[in-house]
Write a structure and sequence with these properties.
The complex is a heterodimer of chains A (about 375) and B (about 325). With about 375 residues, chain A is α/β, with parallel strands linked by helices. Chain A has 13 helices and 13 strands. In chain B, about 45% of the residues are buried. Classes of the chains: A alpha/beta (about 375), B alpha/beta (about 325). Chain A: It is a single-pass type II membrane protein.
Chain lengths: ~375, ~325
């Protein structure tokens, strides 16, 4: 009798144990991970969407401060890490409310992650993106107003947090690491700026707006100083030319951004146009380029800095080509080293917020007032 | 009277004990059964093909253990013969392939349906894709035996031969390998031609051996209707004991792609918008398909030249740029 009931209990216990553990195992997919590593299921990736967005940045108002300079899988990044701390670039991206989702979002997800800091500048504030409102209207005729106000804002709020200040459009693709190489031969206290150099209308030339241009700290100081002393003003809405003319007046040099083989690094069009396009003789481009145009593969440096008119899809493709896809073991033909002046640059581990003196703050307040009156 | 409660308690304990024992055994049984069944499941997919495992590129640790001279020797010893099947209508793509990736093959031969004045090619004098493929492979076997690996492509494909060699580094060409982007169609697993097909010496040898057997591998194909040539190839190879394997990188991403980068990027923009370039495709991808001739030039720039300064890789293979070329 006792044996019967204990057998029954055993059997009952066996069933309970099996069923419990079965349900437990199906809820927790342990067995899958034991063997072959399957490719990631799509569902879990979507969860990472919101998390990854904020992983890179420390958000400080409208400024996105880079917490971690992105690294490539399996790389030796010692040189890149060193130059990241010695050539600090603050990127500002000119955009507008209508383009935040269409264009600026893709800049935020790609190349701007390689800047030390990035700020998206628009006509109106948007705390969610985030963007700063420059208090202008939208439209081509507002471009120079946006630029003037953007640079004044940077000079007022972020002057000591970077060595160089890059302006880009929301359809410009920039390889920031290669920009650091161009700038590594110079110090931020030199009055100089770089970009795709154009010829007409300015003696020393000026830099194409769409291809992006970068001002040294001293150049930025002089730009703002020019407006304070009325040497510079809103002369036209052709942003790149007007800025170039102000630079010239303030004694800021238009630099040569070409690589050591004299190949262009800043490009006003997409790679396909430069690499395969044949520009017709009547095309304006021929008369605008400060340096001789080279068509075909030598149009562009291996260490290219920028391209323009880049669609959202092309942003990601270029990010993939630049930072991911490579030919394993391939020994590149072109291997420049760091320039000699690089040794003079000090390292900055954090982007410290150096407070402005009272005098400097007072100066800026009166400047804002003057700008408002001007408009 | 005094015994009854004791007996009852004893019965309870023994029943309780049995119950617990039963539960424990049941739990163990369940775990074992699940493990065994998933082991079987995993095994079932792959035991059909002896030697089958997901063909991975070798790990860096394995390679770096070798001395440098050995690594250079190894790099030079992986010889790839490229078979590119063209027709006159493909002229623009043909030109692009000639000017771009085919320069990185140890030998690239264009097999054309008919002779074309503009470019050199081996004419196979047929427009039938399956017969073209048969003739091209027979020609490759007869003329290029010293190359250990054969890569077959159409001119709409872009291939990065260095990454192919990296994949093939630890593979013995005297074993039958048939690699690429694998597709399953009903019962047949085959490698898609548009993503590029890789055959080892042994696989090609076996194929050539069966080409003459019209019961197994006839010229007009085995079906009443025409199968695409990549499926016909798979059927013939199967007869010789050579089975298709999908090539993947160490993260399980396909390295042979029958789609273009644009197409894959667009998919990633929809599915993983925060990490598009990271997740769309492998870093050591071998092929993409469907790029325009101009885009092939852009890809050439993107693969062999464009890169961010200051990021170094200590790769264990060494590939030098080809002579007489300036776009790489």
């Amino acid at each position: 009798m006792a044996k019967m009931s204990s057998r029954r209990s055993f059997f009952l216990g066996f069933m309970v144990g099996t069923c419990t553990l079965y349900f437990f195992l199906t809820q927790v997919p342990l067995n899958k991970n034991f063997f072959h590593k399957m490719s990631l299921p799509v569902a879990s990736k979507n969860k990472a969407v919101v998390e990854n967005e904020n992983l890179n940045w420390r958000v400080d108002g409208p400024a996105l401060i880079n917490l971690e300079h992105p690294h490539l899988k399996g790389e030796d990044s010692r040189v890149a890490d060193d130059i990241y701390n010695k050539v600090r670039i603050l990127c500002w991206v000119m955009t507008g409310p209508a383009n935040l989702e269409k264009k600026a979002r893709h800049v935020k997800a790609t190349w701007s992650r390689h800047c030390n800091m990035v700020i998206f500048m628009s006509s109106t504030d948007d705390p969610n993106f985030p963007t700063i409102g420059l208090d202008t209207k939208e439209g081509r005729d507002q471009l120079y107003w946006k630029t003037i106000r953007a640079f004044h804002y940077l000079e007022q709020h972020h002057f000591n947090e970077a060595d160089w200040f890059l302006k880009a459009d929301d359809d410009t693709f920039v390889v920031v690491d290669n920009l650091r190489l161009v700038l590594a031969n110079y110090t931020p206290d030199e009055p100089i700026y770089f970009g795709k150099r154009f010829r007409p209308f300015a003696k020393q030339g000026y830099m194409s707006g769409g291809a992006g241009y970068v001002l040294s700290k001293e150049a930025l100081r002089r730009f703002v100083e020019g407006f304070r002393t009325n040497v510079c003003s809103h002369t036209s809405s052709v942003e790149d030319l007007a800025l170039g003319q102000c630079m010239e007046k303030m004694g800021v040099l238009a630099g040569d951004s070409r690589d050591s083989l004299h190949r262009e690094t800043f490009h006003p069009f997409v790679p396909e146009s430069h690499l395969t396009g044949k520009f017709t003789k009547s095309f304006w481009y021929w008369n605008y380029c400060y340096y001789p145009i080279v068509e075909g593969p030598q149009c562009c440096s291996d260490l290219a800095v920028s391209f323009h008119y880049v669609s959202a899809e092309l942003m990601y493709i270029l990010e993939y080509y630049t930072y991911h896809l490579r030919a394993y073991g391939y020994q590149y033909r072109y291997n420049p080293g760091l320039p000699e002046n690089y040794a003079r640059l000090p390292a900055h581990k954090d982007t410290e917020q150096v407070p402005r003196t009272e005098q400097e703050s007072a100066k800026n307040n009166s400047l804002d007032a003057r700008l408002e009156k001007r408009q | 009277m005094p015994h009854a409660p004791a007996e009852r308690v004893h019965k309870m304990y023994s029943e309780g004990g049995s119950f617990m024992k039963g539960m424990l055994l049941g739990g163990i049984f369940c775990i074992v059964a699940t493990l065994l069944s998933s082991f079987n499941f995993g095994h079932q997919q792959h035991t059909d093909h002896h030697n089958h495992h997901h063909v991975n590129a070798p790990s860096k640790e394995e390679l770096l253990r070798l001395p440098e001279h050995k690594r250079i020797e190894l790099s030079q010893n992986i010889r790839v013969y490229c078979v590119i099947l063209v027709e006159p209508k493909d002229l623009a793509y043909w030109a692009a392939v000639r000017e771009t990736w085919s320069k990185h093959c140890d030998k690239a031969e264009f097999y054309s349906s008919e002779e074309v004045k503009v470019f050199e090619s081996v004419s196979v004098e047929t427009k039938d894709p399956w017969i073209m493929l048969r003739k091209a492979l027979k020609h490759a076997f007869d003329n290029a035996k010293d190359h250990k690996w054969y890569f077959i492509a159409r001119p709409t494909t872009f291939a990065i031969i260095e990454n192919l060699k990296y994949l093939l580094l630890n593979k013995d060409p005297d074993q039958p390998f048939y690699l690429g982007h694998m597709v399953k169609s009903g019962d047949l697993e085959f490698i898609e031609l548009s993503g590029g097909i890789v055959l080892s010496s042994e696989a090609l040898k076996r194929l050539v051996g069966v080409l003459g057997d019209s019961s197994k591998c006839p010229e007009q194909g085995r079906m009443i209707w025409k199968l695409p040539e990549d499926k016909e190839l798979a059927v013939c190879l199967k007869y010789t004991g050579v089975f298709a394997e999908n090539a993947e990188d160490t993260e399980g991403k396909d390295i042979f792609n029958a789609k273009s980068v644009n197409s894959l990027i667009n998919e990633a923009m929809a599915q993983t918008p925060q990490e598009v370039a990271e997740s769309c495709c492998s870093d050591v991808a071998v092929t993409f398909n469907g790029h325009s001739p101009n885009n092939m030039h852009v890809m050439m720039f993107g693969v062999y030249r464009l890169r961010p300064f200051g990021h170094k890789f200590h790769d264990s293979l060494v590939f030098l740029p080809p002579k007489d070329s300036d776009n790489d």
